[in-house]
Design brief:
Length: about 250
């Protein structure tokens, strides 16, 4: 099913060609470590604030929510108003996409040329609440594989000229690092399937669970970034996005 949908949507999916960073409108979706930066990406404990400072895009807006997961539950419904700040049936990336869609339709958000999605921590941290996250199925929105596919297809349809970039969860003291890597592997595999870039924070972020267990430095609680950790992640992601932009100029 998804193979056919992707084939059809890929005919219309054309990420930003030959644009400089100052011509790019950015939208960011994610969980608490993005939410910490605020909707306008201005608060120093969120990586998106430092990303915005480093990349200097034309606009940069976050739709992230604390507690958000990729994966759904059997009770998940469309809800663009809820903002509970913790794990919940409707606190999912898909509803952030729905909020983005509403904002575009209302004229309060320009269609982005770059969409970053940074999530996955809560799917692993609360795996008793998301028991099907690691199941290898593309047909269930309760699995990482299925929901990442579904969200990508939704964004291809909504913003066919936007470059989508997936960002894997960084390490945390609240979840086994092997599980964080496992989630990252699934997200990266879906990125490869859709031919979209993936940034692996679980390997390349300065946030390392072993170090944070000894003393908080890049986080303030072992999971959420301090200003230092946010700056480090934001600058790294901006560097990777610049490379993606440069590569697009030669394709």
């Amino acid at each position: 099913m998804y193979s056919l949908l992707f084939t059809l949507l890929s005919l219309f999916y054309s990420p930003f060609p030959h644009q400089s960073s100052s011509e790019i409108d950015v939208v960011i979706l994610g969980d608490s470590n993005t939410w910490l930066g605020g909707d306008d990406c201005s608060k120093p404990k969120g990586w998106n604030t430092w990303f915005k400072e480093a990349l200097k895009p034309r606009s940069c807006c976050s739709y992230a929510r604390s507690g958000a997961t990729w994966t759904h539950t059997p009770n998940t419904q469309r809800d663009t108003k809820e903002n509970i700040g913790t794990l919940g049936d409707n606190n999912v990336i898909m509803n952030q996409i729905c909020r983005l869609e509403e904002a575009i339709n209302e004229g309060s958000q320009v269609k982005p040329s770059l969409i970053l999605i940074a999530a996955g921590t809560n799917d692993v941290w609360f795996k008793n609440k998301r028991p099907h996250a690691f199941e290898p199925t593309e047909f269930s929105l309760e699995s990482l594989q299925g929901i990442v596919d579904y969200c990508c297809l939704k964004l291809f349809r909504l913003c066919p000229q936007a470059q989508v970039v997936l960002i894997t969860p960084m390490q945390t003291i609240q979840a086994d690092t092997a599980d964080i890597h496992r989630a990252g592997d699934i997200i990266e595999a879906r990125g490869q399937y859709f031919h979209i870039p993936v940034i692996r924070l679980d390997y390349h972020s300065d946030v390392k669970s072993q170090n944070e267990q000894q003393a908080f430095k890049y986080t303030y609680d072992g999971t959420h970034t301090s200003e230092l950790g946010a700056r480090s992640n934001g600058y790294y992601i901006a560097q990777q996005v610049r490379a993606i932009i440069e590569q697009s100029k030669h394709e």
